[in-house]
């Protein structure tokens, strides 16, 4: 029995989180969920988007499944997602991008994993205008040897654990000679510790083109924060968009799993949201808990329902579709 935190989230969050919890349970996962509220729901109830109860629960369970949270634009309300990442030093952003038969996309048979550094460089929040008239602004991107080392270690260990053939380090060390140069230097040192894994590196601009021209040449991709942000969405685009994309934010002391898409307030409460991204995030969480056979079962069931295309939500088949609850049941019926 595992204990995990469940943050149902805002908008479509509660309904798709419920789907994930049901499917994980029906697949045989033994999880005792601690349900806590964050985001808009928590503001309404506790006047705080990230109540202490959420931090305490994740601190205790060290693992969470999180529905999407609404971040109102332009208000003083800080992003709960960013706050959680900082609070638990979740230095890995893991974004698998995988093709599903039955989803129209540019390519088939894609199975990429992007490992993005999640805490350093231009996202550290060190930025300001240089004078009161705002004539110029600067953002300082700090890359450290220890920060580079831990993300590269994660990427190579991930490749080793999941029998991945190749790790590609993406950088811009030709121009960013210090930050990019340091990251690349650590990558090359790290690669020498994993002789059984093929490794190479690519400058980010060429990488973007190569991913579009021939994504099958890549396997695990590891990169710094900004490039990872962009390339992980690019990778999702190659396999049909963000609708089926799971993600994970992982640190030494905690890991949070989520759908990549947002809270979709435009379709909340209508039983039409596609639950697959958070269900696949649940499968990633089960792998993190070393429950790979249950994760495999869930991923196979999702793939089978999508491939058949009959019991899927409107975004997957606009001509013939079912609701969130019906698609959830179809996935449960395919678990084997
Ligand atoms: P969104 O991903 O919520 O929605 C974009 C479009 O995709 C909408 O038309 C929506 O209906 C559709 N969509 C999204 N998920 C879907 C699903 N599962 N099934 C069917 N259709 C789906 O992006 P947005 O509208 O830009 O953001 C809404 C809110 O979500 C914002 O407050 C934003 O800050 C937040 N957000 C949160 C996270 C997170 O918590 N990780 C991520 C992204 C956005």
């Amino acid at each position: 029995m595992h204990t995990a935190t469940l943050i149902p989230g805002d908008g479509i969050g509660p309904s798709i989180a419920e789907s994930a919890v049901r499917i994980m349970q029906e697949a045989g996962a033994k999880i005792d969920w601690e349900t806590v509220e964050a985001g808009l729901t928590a503001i309404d109830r506790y006047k705080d988007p990230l109540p202490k109860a959420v931090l305490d629960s994740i601190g205790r369970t060290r693992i969470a499944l999180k529905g999407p949270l609404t971040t109102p634009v332009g208000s003083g309300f800080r992003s709960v997602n960013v706050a959680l990442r900082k609070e638990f030093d979740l230095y890995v952003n893991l974004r698998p991008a995988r093709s599903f038969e039955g989803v129209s996309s540019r390519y088939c048979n894609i199975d990429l994993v992007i490992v993005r550094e999640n805490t350093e460089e231009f996202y550290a929040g060190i930025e300001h205008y240089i004078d009161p008239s705002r004539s110029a602004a600067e953002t300082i991107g700090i890359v450290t040897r220890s920060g580079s080392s831990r993300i590269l270690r994660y990427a190579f260990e991930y490749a080793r654990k999941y029998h991945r053939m190749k790790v590609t380090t993406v950088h811009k060390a030709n121009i960013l000679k210090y930050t990019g140069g340091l990251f690349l230097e650590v990558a090359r040192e790290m690669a020498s510790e994993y002789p059984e894994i093929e490794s190479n590196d690519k400058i980010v601009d060429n990488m973007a083109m190569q991913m579009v021209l021939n994504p099958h040449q890549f396997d695990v991709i590891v990169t710094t924060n900004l490039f990872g942000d962009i390339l992980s969405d690019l990778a999702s685009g190659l396999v049909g968009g963000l609708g089926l994309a799971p993600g994970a934010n992982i640190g030494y002391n905690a890991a949070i799993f989520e759908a990549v898409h947002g809270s979709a307030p435009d379709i909340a409460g209508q039983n039409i949201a596609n639950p697959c991204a958070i269900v696949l995030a649940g499968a990633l969480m089960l792998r993190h808990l070393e429950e790979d056979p249950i994760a495999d079962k869930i991923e196979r069931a999702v793939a089978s329902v999508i491939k058949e295309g009959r019991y899927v939500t409107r975004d997957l088949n606009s001509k013939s579709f079912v609701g969130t609850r019906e698609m959830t049941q179809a996935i449960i019926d395919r678990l084997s």
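The CA atoms of residues 95 and 271 lie 26 Å apart. The chain has a mean pLDDT of 95.
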